[in-house]
Every structure is written in structure tokens, then in C-alpha cells.
Amino acid sequence: MSFQAWFESLENPGRRWPLTDVIYRDPDSGSLLDVVHDVDALKARSADEWKALFDSRYRRSAWPYGSGVWGKKEWVYPQIADESIVSLFEGGENLFWADRLGQQLGLDDLWIKQCGNNQTGSFKDLGMTVLVSAVREMIRQGKEIRAVACASTGDTSAALSAYCAAAGLKAIVFLPKNKISTAQLIQPLANGAEVIALETDFDGCMEIVQKVTESHGIYLANSMNPLRLEGQKTVAIEIVQQFDWSPVDFVIVPGGNLGNIYAFAKGFQLLLDTGILKRAPRLVCAQAEHANPLYRAYLNGFESFEPIVAGPTQASAIRIGNPVSYPRAVRALRAFDGIVEQASEDELANASARADRTGLFNCPHTGVALAALQKLVDRGVIQRHHRVVVISTAHGLKFVEHKVGYHSAELPEVTPRYRNVPHDLPADIDHVMRTLDRLI
Description:
Elements: E1 5-9, E2 16-17, E3 33-37, H1 39-43, H2 47-57, E4 95-97, H3 99-105, E5 109-114, H4 124-140, E6 147-151, H5 155-167, E7 171-176, H6 182-190, E8 194-198, H7 202-212, E9 218-220, H8 226-232, H9 234-242, E10 250-254, H10 259-273, E11 282-288, H11 293-299, H12 326-335, E12 339-343, H13 345-356, H14 364-378, E13 387-392, H15 400-407, H16 429-439
Parallel strand pairs: 5-13, 6-7, 6-9, 7-8, 10-11, 10-13, 11-12
Antiparallel strand pairs: 1-2, 1-3, 4-5
Helix pairs in contact: 4-5, 4-8, 5-6, 8-10, 9-10, 10-12, 13-14
């Protein structure tokens, strides 16, 4: 059976380009592009057949189908040659049943998708495997691509550098100087990327990288490139698969550049189109209060959008004031009865720390999503019986400075309600036992 996908203008459907073209926007209208699949061909295979196929591949060793992304190759990039694929066994992350945290919040069915359990510690691996594989396919077909570049607040640069290193390609990353964690800075350096630290914020880096990739044989790897979203949408599909193909009520996604919320909509839409799902979840996009342009637009019904200068936030990876994928995000939220919520620095830090007390160790961006969850529960939007999945976008070990600052009570605007500090004692058994008797 032949399956096909292509680039299509988001604003002018019907304008198409092959996935091997070096193109990021509709050259006539300037519209963002989407990757569109031949859904009629996909529907020719029954829902039960798709489920059986995907289950037979899931986390197996047959190349490249053991990957959580490439196990769904027909729904991602069906025409690509297997020899072009660059995979680090991404996907298949733990869907953590947050039983204790759920009970504290008044929920019976709370789950956290641990996307930080990927090779570079974030969900960005899921999109980067598709993009870097596509670059290899372009080169295989004769395109001259000298390097792949991105602007990043940390996680994208780590994913790009790792996948380019595995593929033998040159990576160039533009980072805002002194605005990312040490762990995020060292990852692209370790993988051999050319790291360019600019005295600006992410939005300034994004302006530079778009100009750099207009020519010179340098390919753009940011999420305005829709190839990334094809990999990221598989998280939505995999969540349903991990529930034995049963539905979800709410999915809460942290939002910065806003490609990911659209990717989730794409994944759920394919599940609906192929008959695997009979009803859709509601999508929630959670933003940091200091970087909340989508939230502000949501309050006026998306009638207008104004970019902002994003302020300092512990959720540094979503410190973005002019998100490239804003039009995509609006489409996703309108299609899936979406909600946008925000979290203050105090709310996101304490929500993350509270979750840590139940066995998690997630990034501050997950804290934004958890704080949004708390607000929706308090308002009665999310109720005890609802099945809720929170997307944890990165591993907490990439943000150790945030954890240290929290428990040292040094974070601006944060009163650490779950602070925990060491007990300094002399090496004396009596002192130790008296302290333990008091503590336990």
C-alpha cells in the first residue's frame, strides 16, 4: 500500500511541495507550512489493523521500528528510505501514574508523560529524529546541505547536536548568552556543535537563524519547520496506545514557541480520522506568566495577537515572547476545545516541588503545566473522574540550578512551601538518634 505526505501551505491548502524541498514558508503568502498526509490512503487500512501493526513494532529491535516515532513511520514520513533514518531509540517514555499527586489534587486518573526520558533529556528528540533524517534523505537525493542550524533556549540545541553527531552532520546552534542552564549549554558543546552565544533573547536568536538559513546551504531546524512536528505528534498517538487505545479527557502541554500544542492536535486528529479514537481530548496550553502572549490572546478570543518581550522566568525554555507557531496553536486550540492558562513563578516552582515529593523530578516547565492543572481543578473544569495527562517536557537534571535555588530559598518571586534542607550533625550516634526520633 502506498502512503504519501507533502508540505502544504497552512493558509492556502492545495499549494504543495515535496518533503525533500528546502522550504519553510509559502513563498507567495509567507504562510507557515504543514506536513499533510494522504488520509484517504491511511483510512483504507482499518483501525484494528493500524493498532495491531503499531503494537507489533513497539519498542522492538527491528530497524527502525523500535523507535516510538519510526514505529509509526507511515503516519510520519512514509516515503523516506530506511537508510536515511537517524534514530536514538526516542519515544516509548514512561506514562507515570501520578497516584499520590492525583489524590492530593482530588483526581483519580492523573498521568504524567515523562518526555524527559529521551536521549538528550527532552521531548525535542522526537521531532529532531524526523528533521535530521529528512536532511539525510535530501542529501541522498542530491541536495547540498552544509550544516543544520537552530535558535534555542537549550533543549532544541541539545537534540539537534546529538542527532547531527549521530548522522555525521555539522550542527550550528544560536543561544541567548547567560540565559540557559549549564546542563543545556554543555550538551551541544559535548556533541561537537558550533555554539554561538548571542547577547539577546530567544526571539533575537530566532531572527538571526532565519536570516542565516535563507541561503548558504544551511538548513533550519526550528519548529517553524513542520518536519519537527511530525515526530512530536507521535507522543499523542503513543499516549493513547499506552492506554490500550482508549481515550483521554485532558492533555496539558507547556507552551513557548507553540509548535508542540499543534503537534498534539495533529496526532489526535489522525487517531480520529482513522477511527482509532471516537472522541477527542481537550487540549490545554500552559504558559509562564512572564512569557504569556498566547494567554493574553486567549483572553480576547484570539481576536488579536501582540508579541511581548518575555521576562525572566524559571521556565527558561518557554521564555518566548513572539512564538513562531502562534497561528498553528490557535488552530489546534479551536479544533480541540482548547484552554490556555498561565502560572506565576511562585506557582510553577511550588507545583514542581510538590510533584517531586511524590517521586517525580521534572523541569520547571512541567511545573507550569502542573500549576495550570491545579487552577483548572480548583475551577471545576477538570473533575475527579477525568483522565488527565500532563506532558513533562524535560528531565529535572537539566535544571539542577532551579532545584538548588528552590531549596535554598533563593528563587525570585518564590516562597518555597516544600523546601527541604540537609540536617548538619556531629558524627555522634546520640545526636543522630535524637534527630531521627524528632523527624520520623
